[in-house]
Amino acid sequence: MEPQGGKPRNPLDIPCKVTGISIRGNQRTKREVIERELRAAATAKTHGELAKELSAATGRMRALDAFHSTVCDVDVGEDVDDVKVTISVEERGRHTLGTSAQVTGGEGWLDVAWVYRNFLGRAEQARGTVSVGHLGSNQIKLEAIQPKAIGNMRAHAQLFHQACNHLTTSSYKESRQGASFTAASPDSPTALTYELCFRSVKGGTASPDEVENSIKSSIRHTYLHDTRDDKRLPTRGNLLRNTYEVAGFFGGNTFWREQLDMQMHRTFGNLTLSV
User: Fold this and answer.
1) Which residues of 241-273 are buried (b: 16+ CB within 10 A; e: fewer)?
2) In what order do the strands lie in the sheet with 82-91?
3) What's the pLDDT score for residue 183?
């Protein structure tokens, strides 16, 4: 069809009505998890709006870390404006086991991480990480993540144990055990964390055999703006992270602190500049 004046209509402006949504490939993932991401697409009024919302929905589903791929197909319906949407997903495996190596604070670390995903069908994850340093430090983390706990709110609970050997640089050993809970929204760059931590320090300013114990009960607010193309080995983009922490809730040490982290990465031909 052509509007008055003979000017062709932009195909993206043609009205449409979504009359059906089919989902394929979800063997473990509950149907409502996928349908939740398609709500905006189901109410699209034009083909342009439908394409935009389907692109956003597939991006959100990739962020759930439950799918290898998501593909959307749109077919015509019975009436002239009717369309039917078919989304095909390929689920990721339940288990992932990985290793990595890094150097932090002058100590080489070997990490072994295990992920158990989507076991209840709602894109949840359980994670375990064991890290060992060549100077005798070690770390164990157990995590539970629900990407859509309440509405769009992401929930992240963690239990941790850290033993750090600083004898070569600062003449003390540090041990930390505790738990934390973080709530964040994917539509907001901020996150709120509560942490309860028990800390023991041996050596340092005290006598070599004396142990100093303390408790930290804190609330931490984090602002994050991250445009890096890769989290581990970025070649482009920026990182801005501002953390403000207040401790002393329900007893323990009382303090406040603010930390600002910034990164900039640029590529010039085969050369990458990182600051």
Assistant:
1) ebbebebeeeebeeeeeeeeeeeebeeeeeeee
2) 17-24, 82-91, 67-76
3) 95
Degrees, nearest 5: CA angle 85-90-95: 150
Cβ neighbors of 240 (< 8 A, separation 6 or more) are 223, 224, 225, 226, 260, 261, 262
pLDDT per residue as tens digits for the range 129-141:
999 998 889 999 9
Per-residue model confidence (pLDDT) at position 103: 82
Identity at 92, one-letter amino acid code: R
Local structure of residue 35 (DSSP, 8 states): H
At residue 163, the pLDDT reads 92
Are 68 and 91 contacting, i.e. CB atoms less than 8 angstroms apart? yes
Tokens of 45: 């009024």
CA–CA gap between residue 71 and residue 58 (Å, rounded): 8
pLDDT of 3 over the 60 cut: no
Q: Which residues of 107-138 are buried (b: 16+ CB within 10 A; e: fewer)?
A: bebeeebebebbeeebbbbebebebebeeebe
- Please give the Cα distance from 205 to 170 (Å, whole number): 10
Mean pLDDT across the stretch 82-103?
91
Q: By CB neighbour count within 10 A (0-12 exposed, 13-18 middle, 19+ buried), where does 147 fall?
A: buried
Mark 33-68 as b/e (b = at least 16 C-beta within 10 Å).
Answer: bbebbbeebbebebbebbbebbeebbebbeebebbe
Q: What is the pLDDT of residue 187?
A: 78
